[in-house]
Amino acid sequence: MSLFNYNSKEIHCKVIYYGPVGSGKTSNIKWIYRNTQDQKTDIFSIPLRTRPSSYFDFLPLDVGTIRGFKTRFHLYTIPGNQLFETSQKLLLKGVDGIIFVADSQKDKMLKNKESLNKLKTYLGEEGLSLEKIPMVIQYNKRDLDNIHSIAQMRTALNHHNHPDFSSCAEKGQEVFDPLKTLFKMVLTVLKGAKFQ
Predict the structure, then answer these.
(1) Does residue 98 have a pLDDT over 90?
(2) 25 in Cβ contact with 19 (< 8 Å)
(3) Model pTM score
């Protein structure tokens, strides 16, 4: 749920990159950071445990105004490892939109499905659903061999007809388009909201 700061006239929206371990969530956010025109903000990596490879990333982006309120999107990646279930649930609180990053490799489909099912469960605990929350799906690692076709990925993962994209986050291919699409979806919801 977006946070409204009436003193500073700002709306803060939370976007989560969600998916299995190694699907490319962090690659997305790092590529966006390197290629964003406005780099007044920093990318933060916050350790969740003592292991240095376990963290979530956070990157705020400004995207203009709505009814005089400056709109800021905060992008997070969530660790896909099951050891961080509590952190996953915590970071999903108040989410406004989700980019589900799926690994296109054939041997990763089960992990994609497990991750999507966990997401569905966690959203349900927050009173949200995959059908109603702004969400896009990114079929990542399309540059690799031994990958499923887009049609196979859609059949397996996109049961609610979310906008979807074929990408290679490491190379920056189709990284911005999923994000722009999600921004528009979240802004559409915001524009229908009542500002008190």
Answers:
(1) yes
(2) yes
(3) 0.84
